[in-house]
Amino acid sequence: MTFDVIAAVDDIPGFLYPREIAHLYALASEIPQGGTVVELGCYRGKSTTALAYGAQSQSGKLHTIDPFEGVMVGNIEVSKGYANEVIDRIQRLSYGSLFTLHVGYSHEVVKDWQRGRIDLLFIDAEHSYESVARDLADWSPLVTDTGRIALHDHNSNWPGVQLAVAEFITRHNWRIISQVEGLVTLERNTNDA
Fold it and tell me: Which CATH number covers residue 162?
């Protein structure tokens, strides 16, 4: 019997489709043993939980970064209280010391990043072009040579995400390797052509 991550996170409010949840779980399950996953933006922890289940299978560390303050997601305001909700949810997984929640903005947290290289970076924070481009510029240098970057809402509803990704892969040595619904995954382009 295989683990049903979709059922495991079904009751958690969030904006991910079932296929996106399954893909995030698979990506986190593929990190090297003891690897590191970093999530930028978590809302109420649906993606966080899927990533934790996947990373846990590799004894991987999960760092989640979110300011949890007055940010509007569509017509829903993100609350400071959601941080405790996310912590409680992850503690129930017995994930223990492998999980760290950083309450703050990603562009501030990255300045003091002392936690090593990243095997999977998941970006689902503020969706403006400027914010996504900044997250890619700030965090991509920390991703290992074989690591991946996944971004949510890479679709026509969020043109800022699409434009930032298009510019990033054009200017840097990255390529799109998959797209599941609005979840796009990047890896370094190893072709010398």
Answer: 3.40.50.150
Tokens of 192: 């010398």
Q: What is the number of domains present in the chain?
A: 1
Q: What is the pLDDT of residues 34-67, one digit of tens each?
A: 999 999 998 889 999 999 999 999 999 999 999 8
Does residue 193 lie within any of the structural domains?
no
Q: What is the pTM of this model?
A: 0.92
Domain of 38 in residue numbering reads as 5-188
Contact yes or no for 65/102 (Cβ under 8 A) = yes
Residue (of 115, 118, 107) closest to 143 by Cα position? 118
CA 3 to chain centre: 21
**Strand 72-73 and strand 76-77: pairing?**
antiparallel
